[in-house]
Amino acid sequence: MARFLVRRLLQVIPTLAALSVLLFVWLRALPGGPEVALLGERATPEARAAIRDRMGLDEPVLVQYAAYMRDLLRLDLGTSTQTRQPVLEEFLLRFPGTVELALAAMVIAVGVGIPLGYFAARRRGSLLDNLTVGGSMVGICTPIFFLAFVLKWVFGENLGWLPTIGRQSPGADATHITNMYVLDGILTQEWDAAWDAFLHLMLPAIAVASIPFAIIVRMTRASVLEVLGEDYVRTAEAKGLTHRVIRGRHVLRNALLPVVTAIGVLAGALLSGAVLTETVFAFNGIGLFVYNAIRNSDYPVLMGFIMFIAFTFVLVNLLVDISYSVIDPRVRVR
Amino acid sequence: MATQSPQRPLPPGPVGQWRGERIDRLAELAATPPDERGESLTRETLRRLRRSPMAIVGAVVVLMFVVIALVGPYVLPYPPTATVGLDQIRPGQIPGPSAEHWLGLDHLGRDEFSRMLFGARQTLLVGVVATLFGFSVGALIGGVAGAANSLGSRAGQWLDSVLMRFIDLLLAMPPLLLAFSVAAVLGRSLTAVMIAVGVAATPIFARLLRGSMIAQAHRDYVLAASALGVRRNRVVLGHIFPNSLAPVIVQATLTLATAIIEAAGLSFLGLGNPNTSIPEWGTMLAQAQDQLAVRPALAVYPAVAIIITALGFTLLGESMREALDPKLRR
Amino acid sequence: MTMVVERPTGRLLEVSELSVVFRRRGQRDVRAVDGVSFTVDSGEVVGLVGESGCGKSVTALAVTGLLPPRGVEVRGQARFGGADLLTLDPRTRRDLRGREIAMVFQDPISSLNPVVPIGVQVTEVLTRHRGMTLRAAKLEAADLLDRVGIPDPKRRLREYPHQLSGGMRQRAMIAMAVACQPRLLIADEPTTALDVTIQAQILELLKDLVRDSNTALIMITHDLGVVAGMCDTINVLYAGRVVESAERRALFAAPHHPYTVGLLGSIPRLDGVRGEPLYTIPGSVRDVLPWHEGCAFTPRCSRRVEQCVAGPPDLTQTPDRSYRCVNPELAPAVGTGVKAAS
Fold it and tell me: Is C185 helix (H, G, I), strand (E, B) or coil?
């Protein structure tokens, strides 16, 4: 097992290296050149010269790359042109909020999606099945920011059931430890703050959950359909086992295997969703920050973000890979 | 002899693997031999499609969309960029549907109905260009990789492996964020958006075509052709490539749908054409966000249009995929 | 360790006029089973023999209630222990399965859950039907695996199907089937997917288990060699109907139905004439007449007469067998299978 881990970690390195090269090229390909990108349009000629010097932009490419990698390895992602703070700091400040949002969305997508996919498969051809398949297709075909807006309008402004702005109500005085507001509220036992943050999480989480939900439902349904036709399910039936045992041990344990592998893809959908949703709800996570960065051409942030995503994805991939080998015994003997 | 059939060299992780597997599965379908009755795959697929309600609905929607896109610009009641009703715009008030303007006006006094009609063509253009781009570049890379692999030489395998590692890397990134990275470099224009979305679709086509070619390469008829002395190159070009078309068509249909949506997303993020006079549904939707307080319907029209169109393509694509799959005999 | 269980002797299963029709949208109805009748007594070994597609597996699935609920129409009766299995409510049927009626399937690698250890797949039958605690079930499971001839059973309990060889997997399946000492065991082509040497071992195992516990066995196979060694009574199926049913020796010594004659004649013999082409039944399974029009075997039969297409052949009952043929082969077959003396 340890050998497996080490091997996977080693495989990750060339991927990250390739990515860093791509970003290196990307930065230099930006319109106006990297100095404009990093400093903004209104930079003075001295500042530009200074950064040319610092980045060694007149040096040979390999030297530049070395300097770039040095900064990267020191986790120096530059400074935001909007806030004038180090990029990494800004990320670390806002990322927990998005994580909380993503987790909530994941819970919704999995908690509703898997049972729905399972029952749709069992009752294939029924109204439930057709609605489920149709609904999931509509979910994929709906731009998330539009869905966010509809949710906001219907449940927030019109029905007034749920708050639609920000992560907590104005004036709420809550202590923050992890910057995940619901978690913080629970940890500090400030139940009102936790509940308040939770309510604020609801609508954005539903919007972000839409695509992963659609994917999970379809995958589960397809997978369950395939498993239901397998011989070992017939054997389980021939043994006279109860529905519950067959469902849990024989059908789902096999059917959910591919769904687990899809979690990496889903993480991607969650992040994209967050970027598109947070602005509609003024939810102060990394998505909103990046949205503003795009609007304001804050390239250090954008570049840092891409690197940040890449790193996160590599990590998620690794975790999923490991968990897959734990779940599927056939994979282990490698 | 290249007896190993590596459906995929080791990708960097299961994310690429999952998306890759789905695509490989689709690719393998093209390699299915004709069924018992001797009917070719195409004919049987078409027969199943004719019976599938999903396919019919999808086809109808797509057809309607294409017709509107082609014909629409010639039957506009008003020019789409003309601010005909500017005088009727007051702060906080935009006129809704009326006899002269069936869908009302937009925030600059332009006829919404005309813009929607014209927008169909632009939106179709975005979808088609992005898909074509993704397909051509993807098919090129995938085709080269697949051919290199099928040729069986060491160098060929290596080339295939390198190309596929690169593709798997792209495949593992979320498409929206990949597209946004590309668009950021290319600057603010609709073309940039189209190309960016196309780039995001490239890995899928690459994977598909490569998988299709490899699946074919191990089919009996290919081995038979080889045994008969037909040169490998001719086998690849003359037989394998044409038979790989079916899953590509399926994927192209599905990609068209997601391309339109991703383009809308990119416009929302501010990456589209800053000059917003030329109507395109995605840009119109993104812009309408500013008018939500005053007239939310301005967002609803293009959104509904996008949803229905994307749905149509998706229904068509999914039903084609199901029709192609011999395992799904009902 | 043998187990002698007191079992009532007598008729255990009585299948009459069983028919199974598969209906699919847009396709013709498929009559997989078309009027099958046979009986099984306690402790008896009954063979269901026929080519692929003759309906033997479907018969078994219909009797145990394992056919899909939709798209299938089942008619007829299957009386087991006083009740008709085909009309039983699903819950009772589910209780019977695994406990009174058990099945062993053909392909052990696909018939076993790949992600669950073998031990669990055995204990789950025990906890379900015999109400055992998990601890007791594990002990019993190890014992069962030992009884079916799997070495080092305690270790095997924790292993997964892909870690076992083909023969061991099938033994494990058999262990799961006999775990609750069912009154009836149905084996659907249990050895077809295995090597020849392993085949013999598995068949021996089945024979021993069945004899020791007085379990009845329905042996479904296309292989006459298998039935010759094992079965007391043999039912030959063709196109979904039983065409001949006889006690083993009688069947092999003197097959009456032309199809049976053909089957036996197709077996190559060491004492046959060298250089002669091997005999096969002319035509193919597809050349078939629907039973309601006449005898389904007519297109391929060398003994066909006009009456064969006048209507379905009636059942002819004689002391040692029954058959459906208007022009049967009555002379004892020369040089087929078991000689009369043995």
Answer: strand
Question: SS3 sequence, chain B?
Answer: CCCCCCCCCCCCCHHHHHHHHHHHHHHHHHCCCCCCCCCCHHHHHHHHHHHCHHHHHHHHHHHHHHHHHHHHHHCCCCCCCCCCCHHHCECCECCCCCCCCCCCECCCCCEHHHHHHHHHHHHHHHHHHHHHHHHHHHHHHHHHHHHHHHHCCHHHHHHHHHHHHHHHHHHHCCHHHHHHHHHHHHCCCHHHHHHHHHHHHHHHHHHHHHHHHHHHHCCHHHHHHHHCCCCHHHHHHHHHHHHCHHHHHHHHHHHHHHHHHHHHHHHHCCCCCCCCCCCCHHHHHHHHHHHCCCCCHHHHHHHHHHHHHHHHHHHHHHHHHHHHCHHHCC
- The alpha carbon of residue C326 is apart from the nearest alpha carbon of chain B, in Å, by 35
Q: Which residues pair with C339 in a beta bridge?
A: none
Residue B61: inside a domain: no
Q: To the nearest whole percent, how much of chain C has pLDDT over 70?
A: 94
Mutate to test the interface with A, among B65, B166, B268 (most CBs of A within 10 A): B268
Residue B6 maps to a domain = no
Higher pLDDT, A214 or B188: A214
pTM of the predicted structure, to 2 decimals: 0.81
C107 touches chain A (CB under 8 A): yes
CA distance C129 to chain A (A): 8
- Residues on chain C touching B330 (C-beta within 8 angstroms): 24-25
For residue B50, the chain C residues in CB contact (below 8 A) are none
Question: Which backbone phi and psi does C84 adopt, to 5 degrees?
Answer: -90, 115
Task: Of B271, B313, B288, give the one whose Cα is nearest residue B177.
Answer: B271
The residue of chain C with its CA nearest to that of B47 is C26
* pLDDT higher at B11 or C116: C116
Q: How far is CA C135 from CA A42, A173, B284, C127, C142, in A?
A: 76, 55, 67, 10, 11
Neighbours of A149 (CB within 10 A): 24
Secondary structure element (H or E) that encloses residue C33, with its range? strand C30-41
Q: Do B51 and C26 touch (CB under 8 A)?
A: yes
* The total number of residues written for chain C in this structure: 342
CB nearest A141 (choices: B174, B180, B310)? B310
Q: Which domains does chain A have, with CATH numbers?
A: 2-73 (no CATH), 94-333 (1.10.3720.10)
In terms of residue numbers, what domain contains B215? 71-86+96-328
For residue B41, tell me if it sits in a domain: no
Q: Is residue B266 part of a domain?
A: yes
Work out how many domains chain B is built from and give that number: 1
Residues B257-266 pLDDT 10s: 999 998 888 8
- CATH number, domain containing residue B324: 1.10.3720.10
ipTM of the complex: 0.84
Q: Which amino acid is at A97?
A: G
A171: left (phi over 0), alpha (psi -120 to 50) or beta: left
C13, C63 contact by CB (below 8 A): yes
Read off the amino acid at residue B300: V
Per the CB < 8 Å rule, is A240 touching C99? Answer: yes
- Listed residue (A94, A55, A67, A97) closest to A305, CA to CA: A94
Q: How far apart are CA B32 and CA B184, in angstroms?
A: 42
Asked if C24 has any chain B CB less than 8 Å from its own CB, the reply is yes
Residues within 8 A of C (CB atoms), A 213-242 only: 230-232, 234-242
- Return the top range by mean pLDDT from B225-229, C162-166, C171-175: C171-175
Contact list, B303 vs chain A (CB under 8 Å): 142-143, 146
Indicate the residue of B270, B296, B303 with minimum beta-carbon distance to A295.
B270
Nearest-by-CA chain A residue for B314: A137
- Three-state DSSP class for residue C20: strand
The answer to whether B319 and B133 are in contact (CB under 8 A) is no
